């Protein structure tokens, strides 16, 4: 048991006899529980109001979605069909496929493009892939001289093919 100061600013200061190690353990468990439940991101929706969206406008929407995904949020693209556009669902599916291919490096599909009335929706979730490891340059073996840098404008030596 330990004597722990609970309220140091109170007059007189308040102390308590308790098992400090057990209390710290319980506090850490409480923090861990809070951290695991608060980790899921929000669902951000980006609306595409027509199939006839311009390339630059679409790229801006994709860039916004990339930012949301990198923050850990899910992104829902909603494509609204108007009037005669309902006869051209293939154009909408192609548009959402373009979005999907642009964001494959930072996301994965949670729900494929799905038609619901006059809307087509696509939901993407963040994909936390490990960054590709960069190969380290090979160090020269001990006792062998390091290659001298080539003079400017000179090409690198080419190895002759071997018969084998």
Topology:
Elements: E1 2-7, E2 14-18, H1 20-37, E3 43-48, H2 55-71, E4 74-80, H3 89-102, E5 107-116, E6 119-126
Parallel strand pairs: 3-4
Antiparallel strand pairs: 1-2, 4-6, 5-6
Q: In which order are the strands of the major sheet placed?
A: 3-4-6-5
Estimated structural class:
alpha+beta
Question: Which architecture of the largest domain would the CATH scheme give at its second level?
Answer: 2-Layer Sandwich
CATH topology of the largest domain: Translation Initiation Factor IF3
DSSP strand tally: 6
CATH class label of the largest domain? Alpha Beta
Radius of gyration: 30 Å
Structure, explained:
This protein starts with a strand and ends in a 38-residue tail after the last strand. It folds into two domains: about 1-35; about 45-125, Translation Initiation Factor IF3. It has a four-stranded mixed β-sheet, with helices on one face. It has a two-stranded antiparallel ribbon with strand order 1-2. The protein has about 160 residues and is an alpha+beta fold. About 10% of the residues are buried. It is built from three helices and six strands; from the N terminus they run ββαβαβαββ. The mean pLDDT is about 85. It has helices at about 20-35, 55-70, 90-100; strands at about 1-5, 15-20, 45-50, 75-80, 105-115, 120-125. The longest helix is centred in the N-terminal third of the chain and has 18 residues, at about 20-35.
Key terms:
two-stranded antiparallel ribbon; single chain; rod-shaped; 3 helices; alpha+beta; 2 domains; Translation Initiation Factor IF3; 4-stranded mixed β-sheet; 164 residues; 30% helix
């Amino acid at each position: 048991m330990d004597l722990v100061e609970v309220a140091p600013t109170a007059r007189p200061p308040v102390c308590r006899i308790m098992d400090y190690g057990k209390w710290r353990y319980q506090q850490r468990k409480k923090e861990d529980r809070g951290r695991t439940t608060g980790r899921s991101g929000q669902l951000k929706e980006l609306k595409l109001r027509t199939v006839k969206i311009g390339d630059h406008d679409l790229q801006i929407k994709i860039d916004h979605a990339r930012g949301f995904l990198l923050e850990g949020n899910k992104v829902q693209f909603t494509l609204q069909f108007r009037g005669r556009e309902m006869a051209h669902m293939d154009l909408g599916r192609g548009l959402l496929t373009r979005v999907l291919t642009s964001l494959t490096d930072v996301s994965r599909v949670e729900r494929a493009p799905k038609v619901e009335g006059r809307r087509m929706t696509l939901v993407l979730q963040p994909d936390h892939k490990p960054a590709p490891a960069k190969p380290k340059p090979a160090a020269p073996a001990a006792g062998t001289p390091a290659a001298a840098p080539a003079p400017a404008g000179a090409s690198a030596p080419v190895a002759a093919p071997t018969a084998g």
